[in-house]
Amino acid sequence: MIERNPYTYTTLRYVHDVISGEFINVGVVLHCPRTRFLGAKLRHTYGRMTAVFPDLDGAAFRSSMTAIERALRDLGAAYAQDTLFRSEGTAVSMARSVLPADDSSLQWSSLGSGLTSDPDRELEQLYERLVSKYDERPERRRSDEDVWRPVRSKLEEASLATKLVSKTIRSDVDELEFKHAWKNGVWHCYEALSFDLAHADSIKDKARRWTGHLAAMRDADEPFRPYFIVGGPQDRKLKRAYEDALAILKKSPVQAEVFTEAQADVLVARIEAEIRAHN
Questions:
Q1: DSSP calls for 58-95
Q2: Alpha helix segments (H runs only) across the chain
Q3: Where exactly are the structural domains of the chain?
Q4: Is 34 helix (H, G, I), strand (E, B) or coil?
Q5: Mean pLDDT of 157-163
Q6: Residue 89 confidence (pLDDT)
Q7: Nearest residue to 153 via CA among 264, 249, 63
Q8: Which pTM was predicted?
Q9: Mean pLDDT on 235-256
Q10: What's the fold here for domain 144-278?
């Protein structure tokens, strides 16, 4: 019988925007302690990534990946040859010894595990499944600004775009900036959120982060009312995650109103009516 040994693995994620949380997998590290195997396979090309993130600094990305891969290769060689090297730990702990967890754009995922008779082959298969699978089908994801653009155009048609200003709401524990706001006793604060992300977890995490931001504003120095105009994902398979994200926003501790892109006319008509009534 072919012996199958337990292994753990972690993926290296490139997180372009910590606010949206959207990421692309750019590498895999696999650790099989019984065979003293520690291997890594990382991406060095960035053509697919610039299709999704046009402002990516490709040279800096490639330099970082080369340095991380070299460090992991050296660590793997030392681990395979030195019998005194501790075999305890996981792929995540080994990977973080090279690239510690911080707030940079390169982040390790949570731990995965399995059984394999060939760690080298398993690493190649994981890389193909988790990193390179979609290389031929790049898509440009819509940003928050892309979602706001049609709203801004409608406001400009109504000569109202200049009525909205940037506003920072502050509490005793935090502050939160809204890009578009106006005041008539309370601040009406509008924010566009694109949920056109690659993963269900990214979509829901973005909604959770915003409800967390609003939770810190419950005792704000000034009364305010948040409004969100949201854009959905292009991938229909992510529809459920998008619906969950909307539900999360609507349950915010600070009451928020949520408008979908299809309701842009409704939102603009409401802004127009309220501003003209105030004036």
A1: HHHHHHHHHHHHHHHHHHHHHHHH-TTS---S-HHHHH
A2: 47-52, 58-81, 91-98, 119-127, 144-157, 200-215, 239-250, 264-278
A3: 5-132, 144-278
A4: helix
A5: 88
A6: 83
A7: 264
A8: 0.54
A9: 92
A10: Rossmann fold (3.40.50)
